[in-house]
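Subject: Sanity check before I submit

Could someone independently write out the structure tokens for this chain? I want to compare against mine line by line before I put it in a report. The sequence has 232 residues.
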Amino acid sequence: MTTTAHRVLVVEDDPTINQALADRFVAEGFEVVRAHDGPGAVAAHAAHDPHVVVLDLMLPGFDGLEVCRRIQADRPVPVLMLTARDDESDILVGLGVGADDYLTKPFRMREVVARVRALLRRVERAAELGRPDETITHHAGLTLDERTRRSTVDGHAVHLTPTEFDLLALLAREPGAVLRRERIVADLWGWDDGLGRGSLDSHVKALRAKVGAHRIRTVHGVGYALDDGAGR
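---
Independent answer below. Compare away.
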């Protein structure tokens, strides 16, 4: 039986980094499509329908944020954002327009590949969900439909990235319970070595901005819990 290789779109204006990423993904068994600027990235996405996008933030033409907005308007696609600045505001904006994860430069190639594989695994797990009695969750004004991947807050539809949706769904399955950071990272990224902890904090902040900060409680040194907001 043959399997189809996952197609990754690499968008990076630095030719050396672009080539290095492409070479590593090919060596890892991926099919690779490359772009070097904003317009080229949007065109390549439309032409090749990639399974995942590795996207630099700073690009000629228009930046990675605009690329992310445009490609996510078509259909949700996992996006790993690359940024040269470890600036929280930049990261939160990137997550807010549809990026699922981020890495700051310089990065290790093995970590790029690991994060891309984790994004793909989560998409595949979501596609396999099919338990009708467990796909819709209601809690304190939140509604999550895991079959359609749709969510509402106080009756209003909210757009969540795949990572944000999975994070909220994980918390909503045990409302009020404090989930340890290690468990959340392992569930969302499949890692147990702490690689995803910085990403987790950024995703929680982005998620709070969309569903209400009062709904997600931080237990310092432990993890996070979904509350009903009664104490705000």
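---
OP: Matches mine. For the report I'm noting this point. The chain has eight helices and twelve strands.
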